[in-house]
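=== RUN LOG ===
request id: a7f3
mode: sequence -> structure
chains: 1
length: 470
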Amino acid sequence: MAHTTFKLPVSAAGASAAAGAAYAASLTSQFPAPPERGLVIDNVSKTFDPSRGRVLDRVCLTIEPDSFFALLGPSGCGKSTLLRLIAGLEFPDEGRIILDGEDITTYPPQARPVNTVFQNFALFPHLNAYNNIVFGLKAQKALNSRTEAIVRDTISALQLDGLDKVYPDELSGGQQQRVALARALVNQPKVLLLDEPMSHLDDYLKSKVGQDLLELQRRLRTIFIMVTHDREDSMTVSSDMAILHEGRIVQQDRPRLLFSRPNSAFVAEFMGKANVFRAERDAFDPETARLPFMDVPMGAPVPWESALVLINPDSLMLEPPSGPGDGLVDITGRIEQVRYRGYNVELVFSLRNLVSGNPGTQPHSRLQVLTSNHARDWIPGEEVTLYLRPSEILTLESRGGPAEPECLGFVDGRDDVPLAVAAGGGSAWVGGRPGGHREAGTPRRGPALGKPEGRTLGRKTGKARRRPGP
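=== RESULT ===
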């Protein structure tokens, strides 16, 4: 559907400030306000070198109040840049950052209720633990009897009692991290940013520090945002997650759903899912999906001609169920690798591909299976029958590609419309298209989990977007 950008006519002498303000107000009234609590990243873009493109490209996120949020992605995807934008250490080229309903996009770092714990902790080596912790309060001349009580409570909560006068080089890595956390938390921020907080820890300490962070966040009810490239770290502690890829948010969801219901091959593979295959609808039987290694009767018409599909490793069974099979299909494969991972055993099977037809150009496919069955020895080279319910085959990307990730209903910065709204020559960037872009009779999607309904105004405007439903 075509959209029109409405511009305020401006005469040679200039429009009156009152007319500009009234026009802007009339547009603003059509857009709901952002949520009163939580953090909203509204179509944020950032470029450092134009020849290399955008580091962040129209990033949209809604982070619920009192949540532990994990931002996950490979190296170079823009995670740290987004963290710096939230902290105010960089400013976006487009879009807005809204915290508890207040636009903080242009606020300097010291004016934001946001603190950061950096990856290297950034402790002052010439100051002892106590003076590191109170450094920010002293700089703001805010160390008094009330804040001193907060400092003591924080030191106790982080189990730093008795370490007040110890210098950073005399502290262990975990103790240094807790001092850095205390320094950030005594300022009572609304948002705490954690840059790779567990990257330097061994597996034992990761588990302990992760649980400590989770308990601390639940007690303080502050938004924690953790940036990491380690999916296990993020899934251990977070209540909500988003995956960033090449400067775009490709999926945001709860950890369990992000892991079990990825929306693309990239997300599936990044989350450790190896069983992604190209499938085709059978030309003669529309209820059959052709995978490289077998034809699967789906029990209903296949809705696509071609698609990337996922088979979750834990959905494959090594024994047939005792109850009804529900159209169970069996797959025969040869064990290629056995990996013991604590409570689970990971088996990699080699399957012979179909000789005739397309898909499948390789002679074999590999299928990963996760089982907790330690009662028997799994031997490489052994031939085993696997069982699968067709309903467990998940469609990731059908022909034509996945839908482009959409924003929560804010604007994306394309069709800029300057309006003179102040006598001093100031201008505001507001959205065109009064009336919205929904077809007549289409209900507006209501707020879910605290997310804003519909659209709002941004600093720069363009095509309005709506986040797809869960």
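=== NOTES ===
The longest strand covers residues 329-341.
The radius of gyration is 27 Å.
=== END ===
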